[in-house]
Amino acid sequence: MKIKNLLSLGMVLLCFAACKKDDAIIEPPIDKPDPLALLGDSASYTINGKLITVNKVNSFGGFNLQPNSKVDSIVKYTHYISGDKDSIMFGQRYDIHDVDYHNDISVVFAKKFNKKNMNSNNGIWSNTPKNYLEMFYTGNYPYAVDLYKENTQNGIAIFVRNEKQFFKTSGQDYFGSATTITKDAQKDSKFEVIKLTKLKTGSYMLEAKFSATIFDENEKPKKVENGYLRLKLNII
Fold first, then answer.
1. DSSP-assigned states of every residue in 55-83
2. Phi, psi of 56 (to 5 degrees)
3. Angle in degrees, CA 147, 187, 63, rounded to 5
4. Dihedral through CA 128, CA 134, CA 140, CA 142, nearest 10?
5. Which are the contacts of 140, defined by CB distance < 8 A and separation ≥ 6?
6. Domains contained in the chain, number
7. Which structural domain range is residue 51 located in?
8. Which pLDDT score, from 0 to 100, does residue 4 have?
9. Which of 55, 170, 189, 192 can bridge 212 by disulfide, Cβ–Cβ 3.0-4.6 Å?
10. Where is the secretion signal located (predicted)?
11. If we measure between CA atoms, which residue out of 92, 90, 102, 105 comes closest to residue 57?
12. Does 154 map to a domain?
């Protein structure tokens, strides 16, 4: 009899333990944040042997330009411009500055799109590419030295403020002003996207290294060297 009682008690304890195991709360797996997504935009580069680091996002935005612009006529100092009628130059600009606003850099990615491959601007924003990622790829990019003027080239333009002076990789942006900067001005420069990583958020992180010749308002050159850029792309 005692053996039967002990067996019965054992069965009860086993059932109880099984029930406790089944009733245990299963914690959901912890979704760890993507460490890349926690990083912000930043850039570092050297001018005149001095290392400059900027990591405060100022702004970003898109804009449209007329590709292959040229002067049709000049009437009373007003330049009348025309260009490709079936395409739009889309530019995406990223601005980064340092903590004291003493230095900043703006990087523009520009590409010409056929109008049928663009979304309409709905009256408040630039026309944007239907396939935004066509603008970004790993590899080398040319410098668009006539951006904001003729707009004949896809590629990169860089704008730098350093020691209260403004510099850029392109020439004069007004048709009434002559420029000495030719399309060969950046032949010894380089802009290379070395990584393009998709984040868990669905956005992308871009990393690039670069060098460039930048020009002041009198088109006097300086070199930007040992450049590194990290951007979290804003998909519009």
1. -EEEEEEEEEE-TT-EEEEEETTEEEEE-
2. -110, 120
3. 15
4. -40
5. 190, 191, 192
6. 1
7. 27-233
8. 47
9. 189
10. 1-17
11. 105
12. yes
Give dist(CA 82, CA 79) in Å, integer: 10
- Domain assignment of residue 21, yes or no: no
What is the C-alpha to C-alpha distance for residues 116 and 95, in angstroms, rounded to an integer? 29
Q: Distance from CA of residue 207 to its chain's centroid? A: 9
Q: Which of 134, 131, 130 is nearest to 110 (CA)?
A: 134
The two three-digit tokens of residue 143, written as one number: 């410098």
In a domain, 12, yes or no: no
Look at the block and give the residue holding tokens 């926690």: 38
- Angstrom CA distances, 127 to 24, 70, 121, 236, stand at 55, 21, 4, 10
How many CB atoms within 10 Å of residue 67?
22
User: Do the beta carbons of residue 111 and residue 126 sit within 8 Å?
Assistant: no
Q: How far apart are CA 47 and CA 122, in angstroms?
A: 41
Q: Is residue 190 situated within a structural domain?
A: yes
DSSP of 84-153, one letter per residue? -SSEEEEEEEEEEE-TTSSEEEEEEEEEEEEGGGEE--TTTS--EESSGGGG--SEEE-B-TTTTTT---
Average pLDDT over residues 52-73: 89
pLDDT digits (tens, 9 = 90+) for 130-168: 998 999 999 999 999 999 999 999 999 999 998 889 999
Q: Is the pLDDT of residue 29 over 80?
A: no
Q: How far apart are CA 100 and CA 102, in angstroms?
A: 5
- How far is Cα 134 from Cα 47, in angstroms, rounded to an integer? 31
Residue with tokens 């299963």: 26
